[in-house]
Amino acid sequence: MSYQERIDTLKRELRAIILAHNYQPPEVQDIADHVGDSLGLSILASETNAEVIVFCGVDFMAESAKILNPETTVLIPEKGAKCPMAAMCTAEAIREMRKRYPEAVVVGYVNSTAESKAEMDVCCTSANAIPVVRAVEADQVIFVPDGNLGAYVAKHVDKEIILWDGFCPTHQSMTATDIASLQRHNPGAKVMAHPECTSEVLEMAEIIGSTEGMVTALSDDGEYIVATERDMIHRLSKTAPGARFHEVRGSVCPPMKMTTLESIVRSLETMTWKVELSDDIIRRARIPLQRMIQMGR
Ligand code: SF4
Q1: 38 in contact with ligand 1, CB cutoff 6 A
Q2: CA 154, CA 79: separation in Å to the nearest integer?
Q3: Span from the CA of 49 to the centroid of ligand 1 (angstroms)
């Protein structure tokens, strides 16, 4: 029996669905029930009546699914698939920031741990960060953990944004020199960049958006330099088969590459690894996530 057949059989037996982030390997995207960005997958996780969610992505995404749907069993096939950016800002650090800026509202990127979310006022994704920050009722906003996304938001809102110095190592590694070289070799290509990229790279981009924003900006006869995780190109190519895409050097997120078809089968057969969070963390972390869904969808 192929991995695909085993996965289909286990899904039926367990009433399971498979959610995969846009950065997952192509073969994982191809067997998933839904492929999307953090916001879309969070909303799906909150609405599904499946008994098991297999979350193919990284730790904070599976945690968000559990927080939004605590009665459901949420599995992450690879326990070591952890986002380094999420680990860059702790709950304790947010409490300290609140003491220093008592008037500020804390807006937290969903790329953060459940413990950190429990300290936030509202979450955001790269798709809705600007409208969420505009909507909060405060002139001063603490934005964690991504300094690049926070700096991008700060240029589009009329508020004081206090930045944290977290970053995504994958997006941070893409340089303006790499992009300029791709532009020289592909003069007709438009640069599309994720706002986790540095401001130097974003200044070179004609399209700046979340992964789902990139999908909606595509034209089937277009040519694009894609400044985000490499396997986003698989999703983009399926959406616009006539378009041409160029990946940027170093655009691989190692934890996103840990999930395999084999590990999904093992996950379903052994019900590992279950996302376990305390009731207190679930209750407190759900508040900023639900505020985001209400404000930003
Ligand atoms: S691409 Fe960056 S932010 Fe996204 S999961 Fe990987 S390390 Fe984390």
Answers
A1: no
A2: 35
A3: 28
* Candidate CATH numbers 3.40.50.10490, 1.20.1250.20, 3.40.50.10800, 3.30.360.10; the one for domain 86-167+283-296: 3.40.50.10800
Distance 103 CA to ligand 1 centre (A): 30
Q: How far, in Å, CA of 143 to CA of 154, rounded?
A: 10
Q: What is the mean pLDDT of residues 32-38?
A: 94
Of 297, 293, 296, 292, which Cα lies nearest the Cα of 121?
A: 292
Whether 285 lines ligand 1, by a CB cut-off of 6 Å, is no
Task: Decide whether any atom of ligand 1 lies within 6 Å of the 229 Cβ.
Answer: yes
Question: Is 259 close to ligand 1, i.e. is its CB under 6 Å away?
Answer: no
pLDDT in tens, 36-82: 998 789 889 989 999 999 999 999 999 999 999 999 999 999 999 99
- Fold (topology level) of 170-252: Rossmann fold (3.40.50)
For the entire predicted model, the pTM comes to 0.96
Task: Report the separation in Å between the CA atom of 213 and the middle of ligand 1, taken as the mean of its atom positions.
Answer: 17
For residues 113 and 88, give the distance between their C-alpha atoms in angstroms, rounded to a whole number. Answer: 9
Residues of the chain within CATH 3.40.50.10800 domain(s) are 3-82+256-277, 86-167+283-296, 170-252
Tell me which residue has its CA closest to atom 5 in ligand 1: 83
Asked whether 123 lines ligand 1 (CB < 6 A), one says: no
Which CATH superfamily does the domain covering 3-82+256-277 fall into? NadA-like (3.40.50.10800)
Helices (H), the chain: 3-14, 26-31, 38-47, 59-68, 91-100, 114-117, 129-135, 147-154, 169-172, 176-185, 199-203, 211-217, 232-239, 261-270, 279-296
- Which token pair is 173? 């590694």
